[in-house]
Hints:
Blueprint: E1 12-22, E2 26-35, E3 39-54, E4 63-70, H1 76-85, E5 94-100, E6 106-116
Antiparallel strand pairs: 1-2, 1-4, 2-3, 3-6, 4-5, 5-6
Amino acid sequence: MKFDELYWHDSVIKRVEIDRTKPGKQDTISFEIDWYDSGIGKLLFEDVYWMRIDMNFGIVADDCIDDAFISSAEDVDLIRFKGKWRGLIDTDLSCYVIKTSSTGSEFKIISKGYRLE
């Protein structure tokens, strides 16, 4: 299923894990999500190159997702990232954005791709 077509709205982030046990060779970020339409599942970002988290804590509420999408090629963070690497990365990368409504948090991930488990 395409990233933009997943049922994001009101699905809940239960856990976020960053795995760097093989740094530079297998960097992954996984989200355990209670999908509004299908229950608990895992969203795994593979070959991660960059991540920014702007997360608010101390709010007594589930992290309900408001929206998630793949940003455009004009995304400032994606442009800045590619500029730092100056063409040394010769693979297609996407910038994935997940925003929550309950805590006003935002996750941005630049990676080769994702898969659902």
